[in-house]
Amino acid sequence: MRAAALVLVLSLGGAALADAPSQSLRPIARAGVVDIAPPAVAQGGLRGLFRSLRPQPRSARVEGQARATRAALQRGAVCGDPDLQGEAVGPVSGQMRGCGIDQAVRLKSVAGVRLSTPAKMDCGTAKALKTWVERGMRPAVGSHGGGVDSIRVMASYACRTRNSQKGTRISEHGKGRAVDIGGFALRNGTEISVLQDWGRGREGRILRKMHRSACGPFGTALGPEANRFHRDHFHFDTARYRSGSYCK
After folding, report:
1. Residue 68: its pLDDT value, please?
2. Containing H/E element for 167?
3. Alpha carbon distance 81, 110 (integer Å)
4. 174 conformational bin, left if phi > 0, alpha if psi -120 to 50, beta if neither
5. Does position 12 have pLDDT exceeding 50, yes or no?
6. What is the CB neighbour count within 10 angstroms for residue 237?
7. Residue of 115, 156, 155, 157 lying closest to 133 (CA atoms)
8. Is pLDDT of 13 > 50?
9. Chain center to CA of 194
């Protein structure tokens, strides 16, 4: 029985060997197909790539200039804000009852925009002016004339009554809470004038946007249409009213 089984196995193996293919079963490459080798990475290529992505350190000269600029801004800063450049004045007393400023500053520039003449005011008004310059004045002018170079200040602190009229209350100017602005010098040498340009063309539209945007940062925003006393300037002050800002 075992012998018969052995004979059967050998016969089957022989048949399998007889039927084996004459060639290997490995796939044969098709004609016209080109082998694509993986791209070779140059020696140190990845290392060089990582080096190029790393930020380059600033030179000692550039770093020194930046430090000097920051130090200069800090020295000239008032109201604890480097964007408000000027000098501290301290308490200011007035000749009339109701005038004066507890802690006055003499402001020379606001958010990088020069004032034509230093303006004396309190810190609350200086900060309101900065807010308006950044959120109102600059967006209104945009790139027109290259942008605003300086603000023409007509009045700031002055111990007087409202509109210098007898029998009226002390003006916000007499409390260091007001600034009057007559125009804006642009970087191309031209000027936008409240007196000359209000209601006229593109400059007139810019002035209206400026006036409108002051309503909020300031408690009072008066322009040429308020009354005859303001036909040539904007009057902005930080007086606060229960009914909200007064703008005209």
Report:
1. 57
2. none
3. 10
4. alpha
5. no
6. 23
7. 115
8. no
9. 26
What value, to the nearest 5°, has the Cα angle with vertex 41 and ends 38 and 47? 145
DSSP letter assigned to residue 96 = S
pLDDT digits (tens, 9 = 90+) for 152-174: 999 999 999 988 888 789 999 99
Model confidence pLDDT, tens digit, residues 77-99: 999 999 999 999 999 998 899 99
Burial (CB < 10 A; 0-12, 13-18, 19+), residue 226, is: middle
199 three-state secondary structure: coil
Which residues lie below 8 Å from residue 107, measured CB to CB, with a gap of 6+?
Answer: 78, 84, 85, 86, 115, 118, 119, 120, 121, 126, 129, 156
* CB 206, CB 191: distance < 8 Å: no
**Count, residues in the chain:** 248
Say what the pTM is. 0.71
3-state secondary structure at position 197: helix
Strands 234-237 and 77-78: unpaired
Pairing relationship of beta strands 234-237 and 246-247 according to DSSP bridges? unpaired
Tokens of 169: 């209350």
Spell out the residues 6+ positions from residue 161 whose beta carbon is closer than 8 angstroms to its own: 167, 168, 169, 170, 171, 174
Rounded average pLDDT over 95-108: 95
More confident residue, 146 or 62: 146
CA 49 to mean position of chain CA atoms:
34
Helices and strands (H, E) in the chain, number of each type: 7, 10
CA distance 135 to 133: 6
- Gap between the Cα atoms of 67 and 50, Å rounded: 29
